[in-house]
Amino acid sequence: MELTGFAQIHAIGASASLFAGAGLVLLAQLARPLWAGRGGDGRAGPGSPSFALALAALAVAAAWSLWHEATGSSGAVLDGAVVVDRFAVYFALLLTASAAAVAVVARDWAQGLGDELASDFYALLLASAGAMVLLAQANDLVAIFVVLETTSIAQFVLVGIGGGGRSAEAGLKYVLAGAVAAAVLLYGFVFLFGVAGTTSLPGIAEVASSDDGELRLALLLGVALVLVGLGFKMALVPSHGWVPDVYQGAPPPVAAFLSVASKAAGFAVALRILYVGLGGGASSVADEIAVTVGVVAAVSMTAGNLGAFWQQDARRLLGYSSVAQAGNIAIGVAALVAGSAVGPSAVLFFLATYAATNLGLFFVVIVVGERTGSYQLSEYEGLARRAPLLAAVLGLCLLSLTGLPPTAGFLAKLYIFNAAVQASQPWLVGLVAVGVLNTALSAFYYLRWARLLVREAPDAAGARRPGPSLLPAGATQLLLLATAAAVLVFGIVPTPLISAARRAAEALVAL
Amino acid sequence: MLTVLLFLPALGAAFVALLPRAREHDARWLALAVRGATLVLAAVVFVAHESGEPGYQFVDRFEWIRAAGAGFSVQYALGVDGLSAPMVLLNGLLSVVAVLVSFRITDRPRAYFAWLLLLETAVMGVFLSLDLLQFFVFWELELLPMYLLISGWGTGRREYSATKFVLYTLAGSAFMLVGFLVLGLAAGSFDIEVLAREPVADAAIPLSLVFWAVMAAFLVKLPVVPLHTWLPDAHTDAPTAVSVILAGVLLKMGGYGILRIALPLLPGQAQEFSTALAAIAGLTVLYGAVITLQQQDLKRLVAYSSVSHMGYVLLGVSALGTTALAGAALQMFTHGLITGLLFVTVGLIYDRTHTREIAELRGLMHRLPLIGAVMVVAGLASLGLPGLAGFVAEFTTFVGAIQQQPAATIAGVGGIVLAAGYILWTVERVFTGPPDERWSGLTDATAWWERAAMGSLVLLIVAVGIFPRPLTDVIRHGVEPIAAVMGAA
Asked: Domain locations in chain A?
């Protein structure tokens, strides 16, 4: 099928507009002295257009994705290296929404960086988001690797952008871990290419589904290495070591973005490789891969939860919890490789609810951190009285991460566990048992945090220091309400989101 | 109808939470009004449902989560039958009592009553659900209010106890969820009615594993020895009202789950393991009673006696006949009344003396004749005195179980003897003897809410003891289908 030039651009419209936005943000900053006079002393002023441009670019990207969604576009461009389908569109919407939310919440913090760094921040945020959107569309090993590195490089800088020892140290750690992961990933790609003789995922699928005993080992090694490499993005064991350090050291808005968007993009690639490249459960090595992913899931959940147990720093706790949650999602991945038809939609549903939950949680942490200058859990003592809105949102999100009703997190876990059981294999039922037991483990630290919100400090009897006002800016308040509403609505009326996730998943399976 | 019954307390919780601060002391009146209305509705449901008719009544049903083909269609389905109607009534009643005994709460009353009301909705949902996953939703929903109530308004090591309670329950329900999902996959439905009509014969993992996975949650909740250690801690540190609800209603969720789900959905496994269940029951009755004898803390004593008495429920279950099952269901109802009353009186005593050490209390009858008399009635009912409610339930259980499970039944009767021992001994130590001048300043239960809380329960305990027919008829109709399934399996 020969596509016109416009159709080619249309297919990658969302990510192209984000990249264009990134360029515009930088250009506007360069051109700023021309129209803002020569008084630029480097301090952020109300005149800085970076924020507005970034939001506009995200809005265009979201609108473009909605256009795809409405018309049900599907097709391949660039010789099949990039595809557009409902699966990619689902992720595009998820990623642009997350990026927009982060952009809004980060506004105060970015202004504090000064004009130039702020525009760098927004440009990098857009570039990273644009690359992730493209990542969900990539259908070829080379395309995947190039786009993945684009997101990574943007994120390396973002992590270090805060300046100061902590942020720079976190940035360096992230770079090193990322470099190793990229090398491992590339090594895995080499195996896959060696086996299949092509870098196109459908081409690999043809080879993988033919039952050729000689190639099994190479194929298996290739997939295992790829999963380890992608585990860096998804925050899965054994590539999870960077997570708590980077969450703690990176600027909090960046950590929020990483925790949600990077993870989602990682799972998007993993799903596409496993489904399109290995034919879901159809490949000759499906059983081995499923067990491997299952073990990774079990270890990730347990390691993450145990690591989070005694953390006193909110950001480190969220880092470990992110590893544990990635383990939960990996149960769905294991299920789909084992042949559960529900697996992909369960993963998609979980990722969307997780995005809403974790963003809400991070936003509260950001606000409290900005106002009090501390990220210790003890800052949250008695928050319900000092800042009811923050406490309510935080409490709800914590419940959702624990997986208690009536929140979205409960249904997401239920859905993913159900998907695993649907594969009808005893070991997967065992994996679900590990998963639900881990839920009980995680309740220990999530609820400990939630409990702090309503506990009054011992000296609370009237003599309480007034402390800084904790109420955030209006736009942030709205976002907090929006995430809380999403957590509740997806928990009580989940059918629309489940349908969307299923439609997106079907696009993947049908390919 | 049932939907209103279910969500009325939750709605009330929202209103209580939104009361202006200046009027926060009216939270108790609002809570009382809401729970009163809920009780009336529960009573209407209890009386109006036709106990002779088979199947569920007042059914409200629609598809909550639609994901056709994904094996993940969850219904919103409510209904009552002879098994759930008494539980619904009990929950409504004890909820009112719980508000009454909390009338003195001045610490953050809006939050307190809001959580208490939400708890009622969660428990009601467990008793009314006709869908496994919906049942699970409410089962989990109950955790949060309990956690916050115990840790926020309790005494002593309240955070430790609250956390222990949540972790035990979550660990148990974790296995239950696995069991439910496996059952749902095997049958292609999570509808309890459908699953009970055609019990699954084969599943992804051996059915006996499924049985024990599901039972794990119920046995923790009931609780049985050796999974009971969360209970005394939670009780001791919980505020009075929460103890009443915990002992009176929450433990029954375990027994109810066994009768509603474990037995009818997995009849073959229930029969296969009935001896094991009977052994656990006997152990629970005896061990619980022996431990009770050693307690120095009044509240812990009542808590351990609950463990022992819940053993009777499991004993009735393990015999699997109509009479024994009816005895088990009856025991759940009467134990709810009796233990609820015991916790009320213990709470009233603690309010006045600020100690629960049995050794420190003595001669209280001189100062607190009314509370003392009520506690004696509750104690006698608890040890199974004929003419009071406890006797009816225990007698029915023994009669029903003696043939199938003679050894465990004899152990159960032994438990009664021990119960007589610890109850009478406690009454003797706490109430009789010369007046202690330390306690000379105490006033008896004079507030109307205290009298109302005690009076209503005493009345019911006596009424059920003398004239149990209306209740037993309902329950018998409720358990007959279960016994029929067991007979056929």
From this structure: 285-290+301-457+469-511
